[in-house]
């Protein structure tokens, strides 16, 4: 299994919900209210997220941000992925329930510390 940690990839996955909310709202001001974040924090997060791509994600239309077709495509795909993550967490087994065996075991990296379970 590849190491997809933030340290290895440089990608902060916390930026994804902020990006999606700006697309939904059409403005950083509205998104900041819905996210309970300051406008500068939303602006910085959006800037950091945009730096991951070689294409613009928004065009400014006065006070509003118009998502590009690529931004709309990203939003749809990322909403699907976030939905899958939420479903996996919501459907996690409770204490004492059996856990389904993985189809394939993840590869072990000797540099990866082993976590113990109690």
Automatic annotation (TrEMBL):
Residues 11-68 form the HTH lysR-type domain. Pfam families: HTH_1 (PF00126). Keywords: DNA-binding, Transcription, Transcription regulation. GO terms for molecular function: DNA binding; DNA-binding transcription factor activity. Gene3D superfamilies: Winged helix-like DNA-binding domain superfamily/Winged helix DNA-binding domain. The keyword Membrane does not apply. SUPFAM superfamilies: Winged helix' DNA-binding domain. Coiled coil: none annotated. The keyword Transcription applies. Belongs to the LysR transcriptional regulatory family. This is LysR family transcriptional regulator. It comes from Leclercia adecarboxylata.
């Amino acid at each position: 299994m590849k190491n997809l940690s933030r340290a290895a990839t440089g990608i902060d996955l916390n930026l994804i919900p902020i990006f999606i909310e700006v697309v939904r709202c059409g403005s950083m001001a509205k998104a900041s209210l819905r996210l309970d974040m300051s406008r500068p924090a939303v602006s910085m997060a959006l800037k950091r997220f945009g730096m991951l791509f070689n294409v613009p994600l928004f065009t400014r239309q006065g006070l509003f941000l118009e998502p590009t077709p690529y931004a709309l495509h990203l939003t749809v795909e990322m909403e699907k992925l976030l939905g899958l993550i939420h479903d996996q967490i919501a459907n996690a087994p409770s204490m004492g329930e059996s856990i389904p065996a993985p189809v394939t075991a993840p590869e072990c990296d000797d540099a990866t510390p082993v976590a113990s379970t109690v």
